[in-house]
Design goal:
The structure holds two protein chains of two kinds.
Chain A: H1 2-9, H2 11-22, H3 29-41, H4 46-59, H5 69-96, E1 100-106, H6 112-123, E2 129-135, H7 140-146, E3 151-156, H8 165-172, E4 182-186, E5 203-209, H9 221-225, E6 229-233, H10 238-241, H11 245-255, E7 260-263, H12 272-279
Parallel strand pairs in A: 1-4, 1-5, 2-3, 2-4, 5-6, 6-7
Chain B: H1 2-11, H2 20-36, E1 43-44, E2 49-51, E3 54-56, E4 61-62, E5 67-68, E6 72-74, E7 79-80, E8 85-91, E9 96-97, E10 101-108, E11 113-114, E12 119-127, E13 129-130, E14 137-140
Helix pairs in contact in B: 1-2
Classes of the chains: A alpha/beta, B alpha/beta.
Magnesium ion (MG) binds near residues 112 and 186 of chain A.
């Protein structure tokens, strides 16, 4: 029981234990050497920490049979590399056409669509806007947003839990990009999968709401590390819920000191103008 | 089949005046006729992704892991294999495509049966009934 507690209180000890456990198990010598090196040094630089994260992620492919494990790992790496390259190309394309672009991710029901509705309402007369909505099924979100006079494209991903750069590329290569000023992507609702795939937008915005509890940011560091703006939504409910918003803000800042944190209510419209300012879309 | 369905439709139009015994016979006949169409008509496999707009005709069978759209028209009675990826493409009626096709800006002629795996084409018309890739009729446009 003691060691269990230790693990949960001390991030580094989890990692060290993890490394100890995995050295030699891995057939890929390259990774092995890295693991060993990192373990022996113990004190880890940022880069190495990232690398560890990466290795741990790859290890989750261990369900693969021994013979094909290296192949699975390589393939997974390659898929992500391809996604990143494509995302880079998409972003260059957006910039060439002076398009401001945003990828909006967040938990189911946090208010991504509601915020996009409010934003669309305010900017649709000024900026030609395209909203790409990713959902498992239905066109509910796209229909809601279309009410506010912006163009939408719905992607139904079936069972995939995040959009990737390829989806976005398929859509934009059919569009005359010079016609648009702003492009939003509403990613499939959840806080886990979207962190793996960047889409080539200028900025990523992560939306959580106070109804998800004040631990929601603490529990999902990855997305906040990869986001430029964090929105804490539904603050109209604060009195009822008594959620500790200060903790949420400081958690986000702790994971990513550069992140802009803003509290909003898509219901009352509170701070939506401020959000537009941060996004560079204010009048 | 269609006729029977039309009959069912009109016989339950006014629910107050349904003649139950006639309906029962009709119901039975319809289900019996259905048995002659012993297969499942429309079917979509696992992990389909659709980017709108996509039109799916009647009686379309689609395999696993497909990515359809944007701008895809699939006619009636078509069958697409697994890992098929189509964008900006018109597939006319009664077409069969094998597994792992990637088509962009294409038209597939009606009644084509492309019974093989792996094909990557762009900007062309494809036509044929064949088990080998080399035998397709193809016109770039
Ligand atoms: N009280 C309150 N309700 C909100 C607010 N924002 C959104 N909601 C409500 O929360 C519910 C979910 O909002 P959506 O905008 O659909 O959430 P979403 O993040 O787009 O959800 P998914 O697309 O399903 O992942 C809706 O009933 C909204 O009306 C808010 O600021 N305050
Ligand atoms: Mg939504």
């Amino acid at each position: 029981m003691k060691s269990f507690k230790l693990f949960h209180n001390n991030k580094e000890s989890i990692e060290v234990h993890y490394l100890k456990f995995n050295i030699g198990k891995n057939k890929n010598n390259d990774i092995n050497t890295k693991l060993l090196k990192i373990w022996q040094k113990k004190k880890m630089s940022d880069k190495e920490e990232r690398e560890i994260g990466r290795i741990q992620e790859l290890e989750s492919t261990n369900l693969a049979r021994e013979e094909i494990r290296d192949l699975v790992i390589e393939t997974k790496k390659k898929v992500e590399r391809d996604n990143d390259l494509l995302a880079e190309r998409i972003n260059k394309n957006f910039q060439k056409h002076n398009i401001k672009s945003f990828d909006i991710v967040g938990a189911i029901g946090a208010g991504k669509t509601a915020i996009l509705e409010k934003i669309s309402e305010k900017i649709s007369s000024k900026y030609k806007t395209l909203v790409i909505c990713g959902d498992i099924t239905t066109r509910v979100d796209a229909d809601r947003i279309e009410e506010h006079n912006v163009e939408t494209v719905q992607i139904n991903t079936g069972r995939e839990c995040a959009l990737n750069a390829y989806h976005i590329n398929q859509i934009i290569k059919n569009k005359e990009l010079s016609e648009y000023d702003v492009i939003f992507v509403e990613n499939v609702g959840n806080l886990i999968c979207p962190s793996e795939f960047i889409l080539g937008t200028d900025k990523r915005i992560t939306v959580v709401s106070i109804t998800e509890g004040e631990w929601v940011i603490e529990k999902h560091p990855m997305l906040f590390k990869m986001s430029d703006i964090a929105i804490i939504n539904k603050i109209d409910l604060l009195e009822r819920l008594g959620t500790n918003i200060d903790k949420m803000i400081s958690d986000a800042k702790k994971f990513n000191p550069d992140i802009e944190v803003i509290t909003t209510s898509a219901k009352t419209g509170e701070n939506i103008n401020k959000l537009l300012e941060i996004m560079g879309l204010a009048e | 089949m269609k006729e029977l369905i039309e009959k069912v439709k009109s016989s339950i139009k006014d629910i107050e005046s349904v003649d139950k015994s006639t309906l029962r016979v009709l119901f039975h006949d319809t289900l019996k006729e259905l048995k002659n169409h012993h297969k499942i008509d429309a079917y979509i496999g696992d992990f389909p992704t659709f980017i709108e707009p996509v039109h799916l005709g009647n009686n379309v069978r689609i395999g696993d892991d497909v990515l359809l759209g944007p701008n895809v028209y699939i006619g009636n009675n078509c069958e697409l294999g697994d890992y098929v990826e189509l964008s900006n493409t018109i597939v006319l009626d009664n077409v069969k495509l094998g597994n792992n096709f990637t088509l962009e800006n294409c038209i597939i002629a009606n009644d084509s049966k492309l019974n093989f795996d792996i094909l990557k084409e762009k900007n062309c018309i494809l036509k044929g009934i064949t088990d080998i890739k080399e035998n397709i009729e193809k016109l770039d446009f």
